[in-house]
Amino acid sequence: MEALATAAMLGNVDVSAQVVLSLSGSFERNIVQYHCEGLDPFTVDFVNASPNFLAIVPLGPQKLVFVNVMSASGAKYVSGQFEFWTKGSEATLTDLQVTDGGTLACSEISDTP
């Protein structure tokens, strides 16, 4: 088992996992495309199943699961050192470990002209 963990840390083994949520009651899934300054457009998968509200956001080669936390306005999601905050069609993506310039302004990409 130790050899497998070491190989995984060195990037020699695929250690991806699948998480299955057992949901009851109301469930909603929204897929939204965003464009942030300096980044290629990306797709966020919002999963809303009270009391769980999640956003799956691709950052680099990874897809991170963000969880909704309290905010004064809009919908704020966090995952590790990252924060994704939406309000209407605008959003920000912030690396909380970067003190200056860690926030990117983002806009929802709409199919409507």
What does this structure look like?
This protein has about 110 residues and is mainly beta. The protein has a single domain (about 20-110), classed as C-type lysozyme inhibitor (Lipocalin), CATH 2.40.128. It has 1 helix and 8 strands, in the order H-E-E-E-E-E-E-E-E. The chain has one helix at about 1-10, and strands at about 30-35, 40-50, 50-60, 60-70, 75-80, 80-85, 90-95, 105-110. The chain has an 8-stranded antiparallel β-barrel. Strand 1 and strand 2 (about 40-50) form a beta hairpin. Mean pLDDT is about 85; it is low at about 5-10.
How does the SSE layout of this entry go?
Elements: H1 2-9, E1 28-36, E2 42-49, E3 52-59, E4 62-69, E5 75-79, E6 82-87, E7 90-95, E8 103-108
Antiparallel strand pairs: 1-2, 1-8, 2-3, 3-4, 4-5, 5-6, 6-7, 7-8
